[in-house]
Amino acid sequence: MAANNRLTLAVPRGRILGELTPLLARADVEPEAAFADEDARQLRFATNQPALEIVRVRSFDVATFVAFGAAQLGVAGNDVIMEFDYPELYAPVDLKIGQCRLSVAEPREIGERDDPARWSHIRIATKYPRITRRHFARRGVQAECITLSGAMELAPGLGLCRRIVDLVSSGATLAANDLVEVEEIARISARLIVNRAALKTRPKEMAGWIDRFREAADAA
Questions:
Q1: DSSP of 61-125, one letter per residue?
Q2: What secondary structure does DSSP assign to 47-71, as a single string?
Q3: 9 with 93, same domain?
Q4: CA dist., res. 14 & res. 217, Å (int)
Q5: Angle between helical axes of 203-218 and 17-26 (0-180°, round to 10)
Q6: Helix%, strand%, coil% for the chain, nearest 5
Q7: Domain interval for residue 159
Q8: Nearest Cα to 49, choosing from 15, 17, 1?
Q9: Are residues 92 and 124 in the same domain?
Q10: Under a CB-based contact definition with an 8 Å cutoff, are residues 143 and 66 in contact?
Q11: What phi and psi, each to the nearest 5 degrees, are found at residue 80?
Q12: pLDDT tens for residues 93-126?
């Protein structure tokens, strides 16, 4: 099949690859060997499916690649989907991997006596400013967001702010930095996302892959 007729699946680099690889196998997608090497400079990978290739990008970029049609399919956490809120995206399948939560955290000494219901204005460090503002606006709290791309847990200790919004899995990183969760914003898991235009122009192919990934997720 000509390269320009292939569908492209965008997947995130990092920790989720360990959970994603078995799911791909259940969907009968076997990437070339270099895909499993996180240190490889290669970003584009052939698969055993002539009609499908994979690109590996930053987790926050998956939604953008799919929304703008550079990839027709993608795997993204619903944190990324909610943050960008692209109308061009459709998320038909919960893949049931990458499960964690998006939470508000603060220093333990504050959290032990703090009541989030009494907040009226807060300053928060996060890489999710849109989600954070929307969440607090719904209950009349003004959230001043300081946007960071990582190392959120350092912000309270260095005086940048008192609170953070970040992904939490086991809570070990928060505990190591003497932080505690005080409010959960959303439960997070990875979703199959698709480009709406591709779904209209290539309905049979796209529907086939949606069904295949849904079956793979259900078989876990």
A1: HHHHHHHTTS-SEEEEEHHHHHHH--TTEEEEEE---S-EEEEEEEEHHHHTT--GGG-SEEEEE
A2: BSSTTEEEEEE-HHHHHHHHHTTS-
A3: yes
A4: 20
A5: 110
A6: 35, 30, 30
A7: 100-187
A8: 1
A9: no
A10: no
A11: -70, -40
A12: 999 999 999 999 999 998 788 888 899 999 999 9
Bridge partners (DSSP) of residue 12 are 57
What is the β-pairing status of strands 190-195 and 73-77?
antiparallel
Q: What's the pLDDT score for residue 1?
A: 46
| Domains in the chain, number | 2
Q: How far apart are CA 219 and CA 112, in angstroms?
A: 42
The verdict on 64 and 108 lying in the same domain is: no
Note whether 136 and 195 are same-domain residues.
no
Question: Do 29 and 14 belong to one domain?
Answer: yes
Regions in the chain scoring below 50 on pLDDT = 1-2
pTM above 0.85, yes or no: yes
Residue 39 has what pLDDT? 77
Q: Are residues 11 and 41 in the same domain?
A: yes
